[in-house]
Amino acid sequence: MRHSRILADVGAALRFYSRIPVPAGPAEDAFAPPDLKRIAYAVPLAGAVIGLAGAAILIGAHALGLPNLVAAILSVLTCVLLTGALHEDGLADTADGFGGGASRLRRLEIMRDSRIGSYGACALVFSLLLRVALLDGLLALSPTRAALALIAAANALPPFGLTAP
């Protein structure tokens, strides 16, 4: 596969799954949803780019002498901001639907509702706390390993809650 095609597909994945302003190529429509089957191989690479940004913040904050907890919070915040909190939105919708819906139809109705419920709020709090706590603990062991773990986690996990349009 040509390098230009790989870069274009990673760019398309970043445009679709993040808020990173990646310009489209001359033959691409920047606002059209990408062919998700074609770019599926590029999604982990796009995740690695986001994880790399979070890792850079983690290492930078640690190098500046900030407490590990603060470095971990800033790193997670970076990843959340770069993805537009899309993963968190999907997690909250899923938790609300499964927590509050007695039937399949009701669960789907709750998941489509843009308001957040108590199950969604709790899922968000615990998800963010776990990510920060894990990074804080890894950072105490080895800053390099913490950064690599963040990059690996970001590119290994599928976008939570996102589906093809």
Can you describe what's shown?
The longest helix has 24 residues, at 118-141. The protein is built from 8 helices and no strands. The protein has one domain (3-156). It is mainly alpha-helical and 165 residues long. The chain is flat, with a radius of gyration of 17 Å.
Relevant terms:
mainly alpha; 8 helices; 165 residues; 71% helix; single chain
* Helicity level: over 70%
- Oligomer class: single chain
Residues in β-strands, percent = under 5%
Ranges where pLDDT stays below 50 over 5 or more residues in a row are: 159-165
Outline: flat
Mean of all residue-level pLDDT scores: 88
CA-based gyration radius:
17 Å
Q: How many independent structural domains?
A: 1
Question: How do the SSEs run, as a string of H and E?
Answer: HHHHHHHH
List the helices and strands and how they pair.
Layout: H1 3-17, H2 36-39, H3 43-63, H4 68-82, H5 86-100, H6 104-112, H7 118-141, H8 143-156
Helix pairs in contact: 1-3, 3-4, 3-8, 4-7, 5-6, 5-7, 7-8
Short description:
The protein has 165 residues and is mainly α. It is built from eight helices and no strands.
